[in-house]
DNA sequence: GCCGTTTTCGGCCCGACTGTTTTCAGTCG
């Protein structure tokens, strides 16, 4: 059972308990436990194998949840969840996803109207039954109908790229207003989380009405959902919702800190404030009623005896302890990247030639690239067999003579076949400069076979890197069942790199596994997997992911000069 | 349900906005 399955199990217990009206702190305890498991780099089953005591040492896991983890791993479920599922049908949990419906209202709908699915809820709202319930009204019924439509048509979360692009455009327009003195993106988009549920914008302004009017009439905005004096919520045409908050100048830093989150990070920061006899909210840090800090984020952190913490790290995954000890990493930056080792050309499924890709890479300041078209197994991309690959490499060797200021490596993205063999023979691979081995097919194979394939690739003397290791698509397709500690140990032993694929739909390794790979001392490469000349522009998303993993420049191989990079290759001689 | 250098019991972050209410509960972030 994967960590994500175990985490989801306890998340569901939390949801169901909440609908039943359980103590909210008990509900939160299950969610905290769930999150701890979700964030683990190691399989929870390995920890459980050491005994219940090892589980209890995890934050947010006590005796009770530890015992349930053991039962869950042994039997595939827990009596508690089975019992809860009997009491609360699955459609009722679905109702929690509707904006404006929380546990109390959902419970009332379920108990009073016996509504157990979104369809039944829709019918009840349309018939007027919902509006007649105590605590409900016509507007609530309409909100529910809008909410159902939204849940049905849009997925709930957006790729970081889908979130940041409109947010940056709107931010730019806000800053053009004379009345707006400062403005920034906050929330999960500022933390560069791989997906965002919504967007947060923050501004200081002498005229908050003007800022809100601009947003209400913005071409990217579809509808104003709520509006007060300091807070406005809108839905963009893309479906994503955005909050704008206008705060006083002296509170800007506190509001940035507050609305950047994460919730888990902020809870700990506020607890630190409490311990120091201070009160922290979005307006500042207060001693009794006196404002003692709030204009900048640095001030806020200083008031709780911490240095400023980069937003990407604010997840309460150890960054507060690091900050306390002065051990925060100096995070990688986009400008540190000097090479890109994964891209395609018209030889397979790319849209640009070798020369065009090299020129585009040079324009972006890259000093070295590897052309890595597909191997033959990927028939739909016109993958290369040995003959075509050798000709392709000959072509690359010819073209690279034309470029004095950028190195072009003869590479290949070689499939690791379902039977664990590589898609091209060793004698062919040995002629290249850079071999990335990847899983494309058979991602649903049992973990044992997946590991056999990956380990076989790692042991091959010509494989330089494992590309997009899990094969996941963010929010859409789960990755292969990988036992990461074994993979990383083998990669470290054989000097094989791990890729962070920078495409916003992949971001694979994810942040947690990238941090674990760093701990194993494995060199990491961040690659765009560009299929066109504009494909290079996704590099920043890979860098964001690396920053969330706490990676520094030294942890990432393609920050090196070409000379240094080449020395790291096992095939270099 | 979890947690502990004020605590093994009694806490557990905090304010804005909405809609349904006649003073506030529910929801959200």
UniProtKB/TrEMBL annotation:
InterPro entries: DNA-dir_DNA_pol_X, DNA_pol_B_palm_palm, DNA_pol_lamdba_lyase_dom_sf, DNA_Pol_thumb_sf, DNA_pol_X_beta-like, HHH_MUS81, Hlx-hairpin-Hlx_DNA-bd_motif, NT_sf
UniProt keyword Nuclease present: yes
Protein's cellular compartments: Cytoplasm
Cofactor(s) essential for the protein: Mg(2+)
Domain named Polymerase/histidinol phosphatase N-terminal: residues: 339-418
Reactions that this protein is recorded to catalyse: a 5'-end 2'-deoxyribose-2'-deoxyribonucleotide-DNA = (2E,4S)-4-hydroxypenten-2-al-5-phosphate + a 5'-end 5'-phospho-2'-deoxyribonucleoside-DNA + H(+); 2'-deoxyribonucleotide-(2'-deoxyribose 5'-phosphate)-2'-deoxyribonucleotide-DNA = a 3'-end 2'-deoxyribonucleotide-(2,3-dehydro-2,3-deoxyribose 5'-phosphate)-DNA + a 5'-end 5'-phospho-2'-deoxyribonucleoside-DNA + H(+); DNA(n) + a 2'-deoxyribonucleoside 5'-triphosphate = DNA(n+1) + diphosphate
GO annotations of cellular component type: cytosol
The EC number(s) this enzyme carries: 2.7.7.7, 4.2.99.18
Keywords: DNA damage, DNA repair, DNA replication, DNA synthesis, DNA-directed DNA polymerase, Exonuclease, Hydrolase, Methylation, Nuclease, Nucleotidyltransferase, Sodium, Transferase, Ubl conjugation
Boundaries of every DNA-directed DNA polymerase X domain copy: 1-315
GO function terms (MF aspect): class I DNA-(apurinic or apyrimidinic site) endonuclease activity; DNA binding; DNA-directed DNA polymerase activity; exonuclease activity; phosphoric ester hydrolase activity; zinc ion binding
Gene3D superfamilies: 5' to 3' exonuclease, C-terminal subdomain (1.10.150.20), Beta Polymerase, domain 2 (3.30.460.10), DNA polymerase beta, N-terminal domain-like (1.10.150.110), DNA polymerase, thumb domain (3.30.210.10), Metal-dependent hydrolases (3.20.20.140)
Family annotation (SMART domains): HhH1, POLIIIAc, POLXc
CDD domains membership: NT_POLXc, PHP_PolX
Chain ranges of the Helix-hairpin-helix DNA-binding motif class domain: 53-72, 93-112, 128-147
Function comment: Repair polymerase that plays a key role in base-excision repair. During this process, the damaged base is excised by specific DNA glycosylases, the DNA backbone is nicked at the abasic site by an apurinic/apyrimidic (AP) endonuclease, and POLB removes 5'-deoxyribose-phosphate from the preincised AP site acting as a 5'-deoxyribose-phosphate lyase (5'-dRP lyase); through its DNA polymerase activity, it adds one nucleotide to the 3' end of the arising single-nucleotide gap.
Matches recorded under NCBIfam families: PRK08609.1
Name recorded for this polypeptide: DNA polymerase beta
């Amino acid at each position: 059972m994967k960590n994500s399955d175990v985490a989801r199990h306890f998340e569901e217990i939390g949801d169901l308990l909440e609908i039943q009206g359980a103590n909210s702190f008990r509900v939160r305890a299950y969610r905290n436990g769930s999150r701890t498991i979700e964030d683990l780099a190691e399989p929870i089953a390995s920890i459980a194998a050491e005994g219940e005591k090892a589980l209890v040492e995890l934050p947010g896991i006590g005796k009770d949840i530890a015992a349930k983890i053991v039962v869950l791993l042994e039997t595939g479920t827990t009596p508690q969840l089975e019992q809860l599922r009997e009491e609360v049908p699955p459609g009722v949990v679905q109702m929690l996803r509707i904006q404006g419906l929380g546990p109390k209202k959902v419970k009332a709908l379920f108990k009073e109207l016996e509504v157990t699915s979104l369809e039944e809820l829709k019918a009840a709202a349309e018939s007027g039954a919902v509006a007649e319930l105590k605590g409900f009204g016509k507007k609530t019924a309409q909100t529910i109908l809008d909410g159902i439509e939204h849940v049905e048509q849009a997925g709930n979360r957006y790729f970081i790229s889908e979130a940041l692009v409109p947010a940056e455009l709107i931010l730019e327009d806000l800053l053009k207003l004379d009345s707006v003195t400062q403005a920034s993106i906050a929330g999960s988009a500022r933390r560069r989380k791989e997906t965002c549920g919504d967007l947060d914008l923050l501004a200081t302004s002498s005229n908050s009405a003007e800022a809100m009017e601009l947003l209400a009439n913005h071409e990217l905005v579809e509808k104003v959902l709520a509006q007060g004096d300091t807070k406005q919520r809108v839905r963009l045409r893309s479906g994503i919702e955005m909050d704008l908050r206008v705060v006083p100048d002296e509170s800007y830093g506190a509001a940035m800190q507050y609305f950047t989150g994460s919730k888990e990070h902020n809870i700990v920061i506020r607890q630190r404030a409490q311990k120091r006899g201070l009160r922290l909210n979005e307006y500042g840090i207060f001693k009794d009623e006196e404002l003692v800090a709030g204009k900048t984020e640095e001030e806020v952190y200083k008031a709780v005896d911490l240095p400023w913490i980069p937003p990407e790290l604010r997840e309460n995954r150890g960054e507060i302890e690091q900050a306390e000890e002065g051990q925060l990493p100096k995070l990688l930056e986009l400008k540190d990247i000097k090479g890109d080792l994964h891209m395609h050309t018209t030889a397979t499924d790319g849209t640009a030639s070798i020369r065009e890709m090299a020129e585009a890479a040079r324009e972006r300041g890259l000093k070295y690239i590897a052309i890595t078209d597909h191997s033959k197994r990927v028939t739909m991309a016109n993958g290369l067999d040995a003959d075509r690959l050798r000709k392709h490499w000959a072509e690359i060797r010819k073209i690279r003579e034309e470029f004095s200021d950028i190195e072009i490596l003869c590479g290949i993205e070689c499939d690791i076949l379902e039977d664990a063999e590589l898609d091209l023979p060793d004698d062919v691979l040995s002629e290249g400069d850079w071999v990335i081995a990847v899983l494309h097919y058979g991602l649903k194979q049992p973990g044992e076979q997946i590991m056999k394939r990956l380990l076989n690739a790692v042991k091959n003397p010509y494989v330089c890197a494992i590309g997009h290791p899990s094969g996941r698509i963010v929010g859409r397709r789960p990755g292969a069942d990988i036992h990461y500690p074994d993979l990383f140990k083998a990669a470290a032993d054989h000097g094989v790199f791990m890729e962070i694929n920078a495409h916003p739909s992949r971001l694979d390794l994810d942040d947690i596994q990238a941090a674990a790979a760093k701990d194993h001392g494995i060199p990491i490469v961040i690659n765009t997997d560009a299929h066109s000349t504009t494909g290079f522009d996704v590099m920043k998303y890979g860098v964001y992911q690396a920053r969330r993993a706490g990676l520094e420049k030294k942890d990432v191989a393609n920050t090196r000069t070409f000379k240094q990079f080449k020395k790291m290759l096992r095939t270099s001689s």
